[in-house]
Specification:
The chain has about 70 residues and is mainly beta. The chain has one helix and three strands. It has a single domain, classed as 2-Layer Sandwich (Beta-lactamase Inhibitory Protein, Chain:B, domain 1), CATH 3.30.1450. About 10% of the residues lie in helices and about 40% in strands. It has a three-stranded antiparallel sheet with strand order 1-2-3, with no helix packed on it. The longest helix has 8 residues, at about 15-20. The radius of gyration is 12 Å and the shape is globular. The mean pLDDT is about 85.
């Protein structure tokens, strides 16, 4: 599983820079929370990175292992 510190370079980046670095996922551009699926395993297990924006700048990153479908709220 990827570790949070591996993505510390995203902190203080704007949305355009994140898209350039990670690519375009299915994220609603004006949203304050974006998700990127890092790994997909068996039994619908996914490792998901949540990127939180404040004033269009990344201020927090969380990585969670989830089972089943993604929920819209954390």
């Amino acid at each position: 599983m990827k570790k949070k510190y591996e993505f510390d370079y995203l902190l203080n980046q704007d949305k355009a820079q994140v898209v350039k670095l990670l690519g375009q996922e299915f994220n609603f551009y004006p949203s304050n929370v974006w998700t990127y699926v890092l790994e997909t395993g068996s039994f619908w297990r996914k490792t998901v990175m949540f990127i939180f924006y404040e004033n269009e700048i990344v201020f927090k990153i969380e990585i969670k292992r989830m089972y089943g479908k993604l929920r819209s709220k954390l």
